[in-house]
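Need ABC transporter ATP-binding protein's 3D structure for a figure. Predict it.
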Amino acid sequence: MSKAAEIDIASVSKIYGTTTAVHAISLKIPAGTYCCLLGPSGCGKTSTLRMIAGHESISSGDVRLGNTVVTDLPPAKRGTAMMFQSYALFPHLDLVDNVAFSLKMKGVDKDERRTKAVDMLRLMQLEAYATRRPAQLSGGQQQRVALARALITDPEALLLDEPLSALDPFLKIRMRAELKKLQTSLGITFVHVTHSQEEAMALADLIVVMNDGRIEQAAHPRVVFEKPATAFVAKFMGDHNVISGRVTQSSGDKLMLSVPAGGDFLATDDGAAGLTDTADIAIRTDHVRIGQPSEKGLGFTGSVSNVEYRGSSVKLSVNGAGIDDFTAILTDAEFFANPVKVGEAIPLSWGREDAIVLGRLKN
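Structure prediction for ABC transporter ATP-binding protein:
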């Protein structure tokens, strides 16, 4: 395969009429990285991918692949390949001709392109199916054919538009393992669009969380999960409670937050959030415990509104201190040692290091 290339997105915007789909985003994707663009529908992730690929024009800004500015280059000249959500396989062609199609369009000799196509099918463990048509394959096999067709041009970066969305849950798990293994063995840059937090966490070296055409956070999956940058990231990634309120005290690394018609909450503040009179804090759901807090602001007493058994864990939803649906995830052993019921008043608590102050994007 070709050498992997860094992708540099510099102040790129996409405007459709009076609607701005992508707001002057900047991002560096290191060479050889598996990057996931993650966010809800309409956040701008697919538009961003299509601008990298050259299938969507850029309203302003530049895209650089390696040392080359590719902003105005057609897709075939960029050194990228794109795997579409629908796979877009030709039903009347066998697998060899499907995979070799882009080489045929480039005028590559028939024997040469078919030999390379068979090599790509062998890489995907599909050599035995070379003479079959796409309709004779399973969904996972069709996906691997689409991958082979994208990779046959030796791209410096492979762009994937929700490649697992059409697969059943069990096949998704297997195919994402194959994608990660393939990216590791090829060593090229992968940029993968998804709305699945689980998928992004499992695959990515770099997660880029997008919302309303902006990048909320770009970091390693562990950083995104453990230290979400904004309230949106904390809520979208899940497994965090977000408390919003008015700052009543801020000194050193300590911040006190007051919830309207509710309680006061303490959080660790490193000053990076740049807050003024209001703030958001996040507390991981699996760090919440039943019990009295060790100091003021590190818990509250509320009423259990729901108990959800999940096998290895139990999810509690609690209302109190001006907060609705505050979540605690307990191990099954912890819960059943002292079970609680809906309507019961219970104290919840967490450590000071478990409550982090979130930043806010500047519009």
